[in-house]
Amino acid sequence: MWSLIPVLNCAQLLRLCPSQCKPPVVRITTGDPRADSPPQRSTMSDEAFVTLATNDSYARGAMVLGQSLRNHNTTKKLVALVGPHVAEPCRGTLRSIFDEVCVVDVMDSGDTAHLALMKRPDLGVTFTKLHCWTLTHYSKCVFMDADTLVLSNIDELFEREELSAAPDPGWPDCFNSGVFVFRPSDETHEKLLAFCGENGSFDGGDQGVLNSFFDTWATADISKHLPFIYNLSSIAIYSYLPAFKQYGHDAKVVHFLGKVKPWNYSYDAQKGEVRGHSTSPDPCQLHPDYLLMWWQLYTESVLPLLQHAYGDTPFNSGFVQESQNAKLHEDVQERPQPSAPPPPQKVSSEERKQRWEAGQIDYMGDDSFANIERKLDSFLK
Ligand SMILES: [Mn+2]
């Protein structure tokens, strides 16, 4: 039964999803005793959240992430690692949100890094990420990808040990490296680089390297398995909707996995709407409400800082302009229309299943969310 769910157009499915399984599209404020402590800036100076931006787009993600951590009153330091290509106004904006912004140029770093990079030039970004282990003025850190968004205070993650992470939704015996707890150490850093140079990465990125290096994660110590709510990805929402309905409201960190990131969309501030990205096959692969939260945070807290940093210099704000409005309209018209669904008629259950599997889904009729939900509820009761 569940295997049928991913066939649905997820955006449509999720738009129809009842409100209790959607996150609130407002900034979460204090009041929940479990969540945020009173505002105070960075009292625990030897622990830090760390993120990474290798270009200006990811830098915007890092800004939103940093701001989301601030909004939930983290007591930890915030550190952004930036690649050499991140523009100065972006670095300036990051400096106003983060306690520390470190420019990491792997080419300039130590011998082991250089040597490893010579062997595996394809892993440049991975080496930049592994650089987080050199932040030895902190005793413990939580790394978070720039495409994550924090929904409540998560300082409790610092009670965990290296290497703690949540399962990857695609292969749960691997951890997802978008959120992980680690202990900075030059020794570990050197070992990781050497390992990387010798063995490469089975997936071409940092997740492959880290899973091969911390290879007992799956079996050795369950306390190193972070609950999934600390790294909730869209793909998991789609592949197991009943679980999302049951547990989704507890989500603390959303991870915008996949090729299309929140900053690849554009935003119509007047209407408060996120617009699809024209190169994306499915413009709403990401959960529409989390996407809206990202854009609201960006608009309220990050954009004014960027505008200040850029001054009169034009930059890509991500906002829909009048000309872009026309362009978007063109894109929609140019795109070949999917073949029309068959005219509504009474069909057998078996025939409906076949049509579903062929991608002919009657969203407004038999396969509407209300009908699917009724069916799900009959199983779940
Ligand atoms: Mn990511």
Automatic annotation (TrEMBL):
It holds the Pfam family Glyco_transf_8. GO terms for molecular function: glycogenin glucosyltransferase activity; metal ion binding. The keyword Glycoprotein applies. It catalyses: [1,4-alpha-D-glucosyl](n)-L-tyrosyl-[glycogenin] + UDP-alpha-D-glucose = [1,4-alpha-D-glucosyl](n+1)-L-tyrosyl-[glycogenin] + UDP + H(+); L-tyrosyl-[glycogenin] + UDP-alpha-D-glucose = alpha-D-glucosyl-L-tyrosyl-[glycogenin] + UDP + H(+). InterPro entries: Glyco_trans_8, GNT1/Glycosyltrans_8, Nucleotide-diphossugar_trans. GO terms for biological process: glycogen biosynthetic process. Residues 326-362 are annotated as: Disordered. GO terms for cellular component: cytoplasm. It comes from the Eukaryota. PANTHER family: GLYCOGENIN SUBFAMILY MEMBER (PTHR11183). Belongs to the glycosyltransferase 8 family. Glycogenin subfamily. This is glycogenin glucosyltransferase.
